[in-house]
Amino acid sequence: MTRFLRLLLTGAGLAGAASAQTDASHTLDALLAEVRQLRVAVERSISIGPRIQLLLQRAQIQQTAVTRLSRDLDDIRSQIANASNEASVSEKLLADYSERMRQEQNPAQKQGLEDRLRGFKLNNEAAKAREQQLQVRASEVATQLQAEQSKLDALEARLDALDKQLDAPPRL
User: Is 119 helix (H, G, I), strand (E, B) or coil?
Assistant: First the structure.
């Protein structure tokens, strides 16, 4: 009977050792998989990090260009409003002085009104020409602004894609 007991204990010990070996093997496999995932995550961070920094700097530069063009466009539009207002004022003065000149009987006074009228006509034409030039310039700047904004949108889309890559689980 003691022999049977010894045999039973020895068998149980071997079974326990085999079970411990299996558990250790599973633990080792799990640790190895975790190390591999960490390696992939570190490699991905190392490769994506500089790309993100570069894209961020480019986006900042692009944002500066968009801001500058937007400010320029606002300034030009303000100048257009001023030129348009100036043209309106000179047109009203032209109408007033034309009417006064028709009613004036004194030749000396009439001559003075004609001189002023010519000056107002020149101012009116200059204001209209300036307004037209500013309209052309505003159109050019608006086109540039749209192009620069498209570039900024593309950079932001690339940043979003890189951000999603960082959020994605690592591939082994």
Answer: helix
**3-class secondary-structure state, position 106:** coil
* Domain extents in the chain: 26-167
Is-above-0.85 flag for pTM? no
Q: How far is the CA of 29 from the CAs of 17, 34, 92, 133, in angstroms?
A: 18, 9, 91, 75
Q: Is the dihedral of CA 26, 29, 35, 40 positive or negative?
A: negative
CATH code given to domain 26-167? 1.10.287.1490
pLDDT digits over 101-155, tens only? 888 888 888 888 888 889 888 988 998 999 999 999 999 999 999 999 999 999 9
Model confidence pLDDT, tens digit, residues 10-33: 555 554 544 556 788 899 988 888
> Phi and psi of 169, rounded to 5°?
-65, 145
Give CA–CA dist 150/93, Å, rounded.
46
Measured distance CA(169)–CA(172) in Å, rounded = 10
Q: What does the alpha-carbon distance between residue 123 and residue 5 come to, in Å, rounded to a whole number?
A: 122
